[in-house]
Design a protein that fits this description.
single chain; alpha+beta; Pemi-like Protein 1, Chain: D; 2 helices; about 25% helix
Length: about 70
């Protein structure tokens, strides 16, 4: 079951500590990066999960030969 909302307190120097259950909910671990944005006076935090693309090296070599 997911966590929908939680009340957190902003600490010294503006530090916001996220509880482990929130981090687990979005599969975040120590060292992961997030995107933080403000939209309509709302703070939005999203996990930064780059997409992994499978590249066929033969196609890359072919394209490089054409140049």
């Amino acid at each position: 079951m997911g966590v929908n909302a939680m009340i957190l307190r902003i600490g010294r120097r503006g530090v916001l500590r996220l509880p482990k259950q929130l981090l687990r909910e979005v599969d975040l671990k120590e060292g992961d990066e997030v995107i933080v944005e403000v939209k309509d006076n709302t703070l939005i935090i999203k996990p930064l999960k780059p997409k992994i693309v499978d590249i066929d090296m033969e196609i890359i070599e072919h394209l490089l030969r054409e140049e």
